[in-house]
Each structure stands twice: as structure tokens, then as C-alpha cells.
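Sharing a chain and its predicted structure for anyone who wants a worked example. Both blocks are below, sequence first, C-alpha cells second.
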Amino acid sequence: MQPFGKGVGRICAVVAGSRASEFRALVGEALRKTPTVELRLDWLRSDAERHRVLDWLKRSERRGAVFIATCRRRVAGGELAGDAGTELYWLMKAKEAGCEWCDLEVETLRELPGGSVEDYALPRKVLLSIHDFRRTPKLPDRVKIPARGGVAAVKVAAMARKISDGVRLLRLAHREQQVVTVPMGEIGLPARILALREGSALAYAPVAAATAPGQVHLGDLKELYRAHELNKATRVYGVIGNPIGHSMSPLLHNTGYVAARKNAVFLPFLVEKLGDFLKAVPEFDLSGFSVTLPHKQAMFRYLDDCEPLAEKIGAVNTVTVRRNGKLYGSNTDYVGVLKALERRMRLKGSRVLVFGAGGAARAAAFALRKAGAEVCVCARRPEAAEELARAAEGEVIRRAELRKQKFDAIVNSTPLGMYPHPQISPLGPRELNCSLVMDLIYRPFETKLLKIARARGIRTVPGVELFLAQGITQWEHWMGWRAPEAAMRRAVLGALRAEEKSRR
């Protein structure tokens, strides 16, 4: 039985603001997306502001809305500078304002006589919360709700330091029906999104300011990831990398699922160690995943099978998990390079420099060679450049020679200039002796390298062209269905342009 009752939105909007006016506006925004709202009273900057919010709430008529009052002390990771008595005071005032639920820290419960809140005029239902902002502790096989003490449900929020930490919290959600599980941190984000599917009573999402590490914005949790609609039939995909927060693959793929009405979800996985992630693949019930920096080449040795071209390239950006659990690798990066460049130049007989020698560089080099271009390779590590040039039947160009060499095109395949360091360019103005420059980085939309090239009158190709082409090909590979390309392209370009505008 769900402790919050039928009809209650399982996505809980978190409202946190310093002023009562801001608070009221955020509550209104939250209720347009979900009827369940957590009021973080501890975030208000003064007692006077707290009184204003609760007086307003008492006068308001919010039919169907469920409010969870929270006034977390600093000792428990909140903002309230006070003792247990202060916290209880505000939770009692929240009851007078009409809050049916309150969130009470286990630290506070332990300080009360008899470990019970039954003698206090708190909201009728108490959610006992256990937070660990440092790690995921050892979890019990079962969570017992105290028979006495006035507790109706338990919340366990813990920092996920490893992917397996998120898995353990998902297992707890699967076993218990009166428990809210909240994996925290970027590594725990995929498990946070899947928690409702596994049985967690609630999933928290901020309307504006995040109140805990790894929170997903309310709009994204509901509309992009559709966490409240996920079920056991949902096909789960993802992207793995380090870093991963900049990736727009979730936006691209999930937009496609929504437009095509596919029961699927695409999640970002921060992966520091490939082995740890691969152990968790069955736990997340993954059907496939994208591979980005720095795992494109390392992933190759974990595959059970692979397409011939990807094997020749020696790097994969697409992994399909077959029904028997075997991993099949392929590469759609080369498709993206070809589609982006063939629209703008004749590749056959052209001379193209690939700057870099990693997984993306290998895909670019083999794509260009296949199209009949003369491939040149320049990289920071001479041995890597020589190996790639040999494999792609090209030549090595030393960095010192670039100012004297001429090319039809230069393709940057290094991460230099990628968000959050957009002020960096991998090449200087005098090294761009070519007619066209393509940067495989797509965030920012126009990198420092492309700005330098444009200032010199050189045609440019933004990395988003490669990103869209490879991602759409990937989507169709997994779905076996024509991708809603226009919607996917519109979503990504719109997000990138909005981001660029916000930085001006």
C-alpha cells in the first residue's frame, strides 16, 4: 500500500526560496505539474518569512494538493539554525496551516522523550527521513515502520559514491512499499530517476534551486524522463562517460521517445570505472547505451561481438545489450562525420587533418578514408598518432609542421574547448591553413576554435551536426523505427541556442 494514498502525485515538487513572495510563486508553478509539494521552510531567510508563508497557506484553498512541511536543521543537512524544539515548532505551525504531512529527521526523533512524536501536534502523517550526505551506508534487508511513534513512512536519502550504491537503494525501493529512496549525487542520478519504477513512494524534484546533490529539475523529471510513467515494460538506455553532465544525449533520445510514443527512457551514467558500470547493467535492465569520452576505446575489450567497421576502427560509441546479456558494439560516429562533411565539400581526393587520436578521431579518420580522402593525423602523443595513421593508411603530421601545411579541412576530435572550458582552443590561428574547420565538440555551440576559424574567413561545421547525425542513427538502430528527426533536432538546437543566449 502506498503511504501517500491514491491520487497523490508520486513526483514531489521541492519548493525552496528565501522570501515568502518567491515561495508563493514557486508553489503555484509546482502545482501546475504535480499535486504533491514539499515546503522547505528552513530555506526561508527569517522567522517572519516563515510566518508569512504559513499564513498565506492557511488562507489558500488548494483542493487536491498534498503539502509536506520540512524544516530541516543544519545538523541534518538543512538550513535551519535552531534546535529540535525550533524544528518542531515550525512543523506544528505547518499543521495549523493545513499541511497533512511533515518530514522529520531521525536525529530529531532520537532527541524526543520515548522516541515518539505522538505527544506533539504535528501534521497527521510523519515521514521519518534518514540522510547521509557522505556515502550510502549498509542498508537493512527490511525497513520496519515503528508501531508507535506516529511515523507513517520512512525516507532514505544517501550519497551514491559508486553505481552499485544506487543499485542498493533501488533494491530497497523494490522490497518496501512504505519507503522513499533517494540516491544523491551525479552518480546516483539514474537510480533517482528509476526509483518510482522500482516502488519508491515519492521522487523529489526542485522547482528552482536544488536542495540536495544530483536533483533533477521538476520539468525534466516529469516531461523529459517521465519518471512517473516508467514501468517494468520500459526499455532503458543511457550514455556513459566522464564527465557526463554536459551531454545532450538524454534530451535527444528522450525527445524522440516522446514524439514517437515509445515506452523507453534514456539516462546519463557518470562512469569512472567501466567494470563497475558493466556489473550494474543487468540491475538497471539496460537494453543499450552510448559510449563517450573517455571509454570509446576501452569499451572495446568488454564486447562479446562487434560490427566489422567498428572492429576495424577499434572504438565503439554504441552498445546493444542482447537478450542473453551479451554486448554488441557498433559505431555511428563515422556516419555523423560523413553526413556533416559531405554536405559541404567533396571528400574524395581531399586532404583532411584529424587532430587527436582517441575514439572519436579513429571514427573520423576511417570515415574520411572510406570516402576517398587523404588522411593526416596530428596528436599530442606521437605513438598514438602513428598507430592511427597506419591503421587509416594516412600520414602523421607533427604539431610544429602545421603552420607550413595546407589542408582542405581540419577536424578537431579532442575535448579541448568543451564545456566547462569553452575559452580554450586546441589550435591557434596560424595553424588553420584550410578551407573548412569542423569541431566535434557540440557544447558550446560555437567553440573557441570555430570562432577563430570564422574570424579568418574559414567555413565552419559545428559539432552539433555530428552529434545529431550519430545520435539519430543510434536511435533508429535501437528502436528499429524511423526517428522523429525534426523534433529531436529542434529540441537540441533550441537548448544550445538558449544556453548561448544566457551566457551573453
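Comments welcome. The longest strand covers residues 151-159.
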